[in-house]
Specification:
Organism: Paenibacillus aceti
InterPro entries: HAD-like_sf, HAD-SF_hydro_IA, HAD_2, HAD_sf, PGP-like_dom2
Distance between the termini: 24 Å
Shape: globular
Structural class: alpha/beta
Strand order of the largest sheet: 5-4-1-6-7-8
Protein name: Noncanonical pyrimidine nucleotidase, YjjG family protein
Radius of gyration: 18 Å
Number of strands: 8
Order of helices and strands: EEHHHHEHEHEHHEHEEH
Pfam families: HAD_2 (PF13419)
Strand content: 5-15%
Number of helices: 10
Largest sheet: 6 strands, parallel
Length: 241
C-alpha cells in the first residue's frame, strides 16, 4: 500500500459507520410467537438476508421498506429456520418498533477510527445511497463534522453503483481515483461501482466470507478499524476503542 498516494478516504454509511437495533426488536417480536433466538443468531440471519438481497435484488434495500418488507422478513425467517405467519409477524414487529424505535447508531469504534484517520492527515468523505434522512442520521451521531465532503444519492440524483456518483465526488474535492480509497459493505454497489472509475475499495464483512461465498475478492476487512491497519497506521489506543 503506497500511503503517500492516498489522500482521500471515502466511506459508505449504513452498516459501515452506523447500524440499527433491529436485532433486539426482532428478538422481542419472535418471543410473542414463543420463539427464542439469541441476538447472535438473529444478527447472522440479518447479515445473510442483507447479502442475499444485495446480490440478487440490487437497489431494493435502499427503497421504502413497505415495498419489500414481507419478502425480506420471509427471507430472514428462512435463515433462522422458522416458519411463521408473515402478516402477523410484521404487524407485531411494527407495534414493538413504536415502543422501541429502530434507530441508526454509530458503531462504538466509528468516531475513534475516523478521528484517528483525520489525525493521520487523511481527508474523509461519505458516498451513500440514502434518502433525505441521511443528514439527520449523521447529525444525531455527531458524524457530520468529521467529513470534508458528503455525497448523498437522494441529494445528487444518482446512486451507487453508477460511476457518476463516484466521479462527482472526485470532481468536488479535486482528487484522482488513484488518490482515493473507498470502504463499504455492499460488493455490488461499492466494489463494482469503484472498479468502474478506478478507485480501490475495501469490502466490510464481519464474518469472513459468510454471506458472500460467491465472491472472489481478497480486500475484505471486518470493520472500518481494518482501514487503520491497511494504511499501516498506529493502532487506535485501546482506551478509545
Amino acid at each position: 500500500m503506497d500511503e503517500v498516494m492516498i489522500r482521500y478516504l471515502w466511506f459508505d454509511l449504513g452498516y459501515t459507520l452506523v447500524a440499527t437495533n433491529r436485532e433486539e426488536v426482532y428478538q422481542k417480536t419472535l418471543e410473542r410467537f414463543a420463539v427464542t433466538k439469541t441476538i447472535d443468531e438473529i444478527t447472522m440471519a440479518y447479515h445473510q438476508a442483507d447479502k442475499l438481497f444485495m446480490r440478487e435484488y440490487p437497489g431494493v434495500l435502499g427503497k421504502d421498506s413497505r415495498t419489500f418488507l414481507p419478502w425480506y422478513v420471509g427471507t430472514l425467517n428462512y435463515f433462522l429456520g422458522l416458519s411463521l405467519p408473515i402478516e402477523d409477524l410484521i404487524r407485531i414487529h411494527l407495534e414493538l418498533a413504536k415502543e422501541q424505535p429502530i434507530q441508526w447508531r454509530a458503531f462504538e469504534f466509528t468516531k475513534p477510527t475516523l478521528h484517528c484517520l483525520k489525525e493521520a492527515g487523511y481527508q474523509l468523505g461519505l458516498i451513500s445511497n440514502w434518502d433525505q434522512s441521511a443528514r439527520e442520521v449523521l447529525s444525531r451521531n455527531q458524524l457530520e463534522e468529521l467529513f470534508d465532503e458528503i455525497i448523498i444519492s437522494s441529494e445528487v440524483g444518482v446512486e451507487k453503483p453508477d460511476p457518476a456518483i463516484f466521479e462527482l465526488a472526485l470532481a468536488r474535492v479535486q482528487v484522482t481515483a488513484e488518490q482515493s480509497l473507498y470502504v463499504g459493505d455492499n460488493y455490488y454497489d461499492d466494489v463494482r461501482g469503484c472498479q468502474q472509475v478506478g478507485i480501490h475499495c475495501l469490502l466490510i464483512n464481519p464474518y469472513n466470507n459468510q454471506g458472500i461465498e460467491e465472491l472472489d475478492y481478497t480486500h475484505i476487512i471486518p470493520s472500518i478499524q481494518g482501514v487503520v491497519d491497511y494504511l499501516g497506521l498506529k493502532s487506535i489506543p485501546q482506551e478509545i476503542k
